[in-house]
Amino acid sequence: MTEIEVFVAIIDNDGFTGAANKLKLSKSSVSKHIMALESRLGVTLLNRTTRNVRPTDIGLNYYEKCIQILTGVREADLTVTSMQSTPQGILKLSAAGDFGSNHLVGALTPFLKLHPKIKVHMTLDNQFVDLVSEGFDVAIRIGDLPDSSLQARKIATTQFAIVGSEDYFKIHGKPEKIDDLADHQLLKYSLGKNDNFWRIPTFGGDERQFRGRYSLSVNDGKSLMFAAEDGLGLAYLPCFIYGNSIRNGRLQKVLPDLKLPKVGIYIVYPPADYIQPKLRVFIDFLVSHFKDKNNEIW
Fold this sequence. Notes:
Elements: H1 3-12, H2 16-23, H3 27-41, E1 46-48, E2 53-55, H4 57-85, E3 89-95, H5 97-114, E4 118-124, E5 138-142, E6 151-164, H6 166-172, E7 188-189, E8 198-201, E9 207-210, E10 217-218, H7 221-229, E11 235-238, H8 239-247, E12 252-254, E13 262-269, H9 277-291, E14 296-297
Parallel strand pairs: 3-4, 3-5, 6-14, 7-10
Antiparallel strand pairs: 1-2, 5-13, 6-11, 6-12, 6-13, 8-9
Helix pairs in contact: 1-2, 1-3, 1-4, 2-3
């Protein structure tokens, strides 16, 4: 019980006895709270007689300010309670640009219809963000997760492939074996761990590195896809980027029998004793959404 709550209760309940009964405190405890408050402020807030307790002029002004403070605190408590019962508020989301535009935007439509009191602020950026310091509630991460204190749930997987266009193959030929890659134009993703070369698992399970020739290095997967469609070179991409281009014939897989890696797609969020309802329903929705797609992003 705070000193100002006791002070307000004394005035509202006509004295120390009424305040003690209201707050379920002893009369001596109420007196100690007021003595401590007046000592801290260095003023007399209450005039006491054997029959009456009345606020001084300073005490009455202080009482009015205390009422405003307590009202604000109660309103804040009600707001938090309401937000805990009904998912609402702004959800700040970070995701890779290609995955966000290809898959998340479509998923957000039914999510926001289900939860009209939530507003999503989505930032698409291929760089990792620090969720806590940059104020994000949640992020979508693709590939191996670095060691961190973040919580994570896997929502899907994505398959990598080497792809190229018919126009490119007409000029440069189509690789028939893995060693042929060394003689081809290899488009490079400049944000990769090893942007100077490709790392490709062989048919025997080993890993080969290919530098190849290249005319384009870019930090955006969709731009690499467009360059490959235009015949500029071969691209090494996850299927959530190249999938539609394969289906409509703009790209073809190269060395399709290679067992290229599948990587996980994760939803990550800061640890907390209590997950906010807006975040909890978003996580559950994405898990369910991609489960309906057999957890495979094509």
